[in-house]
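*** Fold description ***
***
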Amino acid sequence: MTSRASRKVASPRVVCIEDLRPLARRRVPKAVFDYLDGGAEGEVTLRENCRAFEDVTFRPRHAVSISDCDLRTRVLGFDLSLPFLLAPVGYSRLMHPGGEVAERARVARFAGLVVTIDTPVSGIRERDYRNGMKELISGGLLEKIPFLPQVLSRPGWLTSFLLDGGLPALPNVVIPGKGPMPLVDINAALASSAVTWADLRWIRDLWRGPIAIKGVLTGDDARRAIDEGVAAISVSNHGGRQLDCVPASLRALPEVVAAVNGQVEVWMDGGIRRGTDIVKAICLGARAVLCGRAYAYGLAAGGEAGIARAIEILRADLERTLKLLGCPSITALDRSYVNVPKSWDWS
């Protein structure tokens, strides 16, 4: 990471997650930024993920003095200092050389495993097609030529990308007898590797720790996940990047929470850009949320310093929001702190 990028993400003018977005746009090629920023088809769900938070308003307790707020929560038996996790973001080394580290989950002593169930095939992301993402990654030189100007216009990014070895393999997608899968083969692999409920049985045989399911949007799937023995459910529409026109994750959260009825933990991801978004999701029943684009904008803008800035922005948002709500801790949040549209009520 250059010192210039570090100074930019640490600037006093970077006061919210949205301020990291134009910095990311200026640092990486258009194809890379649009891969990070875009969604499937008409991007209806992508927009709704953020807009849905506007439908939930706060009910604060005033005349309450709170000197210190407790931002801790507990996820899968582990204490977290903040009620959010950094969601996995594909191709993150295209955004910054330090974006992915080749460690296998079990070897690296991770305790839990998250299985994504909403990607039987890759959604059509129209920005990627227009920007020639496929041609830039896997095409021949003649196919690349129309799209090269956008890459050459970011010499700093291009230099760091080439010094990092160019197109990486996928260290956590290993083909028996062949090693890590090349990046260009991932879409072909998806076509023959859709996760089904039956797969959870052999996954449980291999993985002795808790398993979470990511990609649930209905009460029916939530109940099925419980029957299959999962420890947690993440309400997610893949950031609006798979099937367009499904509900915003926040909109689907109450149905899933009602179906789960306290039997397992419920998480949520999709559209998180502010601490107020995190608080609203927790009020609606989420134990914690996962943030993807919120920190990925920081990664693309300035590497590790950008991620640190994104986390600090969300931490400060959370503390300020709790104090203004008159709520002493994350664990004290509940539905009484928010107004929810009647059509969302599954209680």
The mean pLDDT is 89.
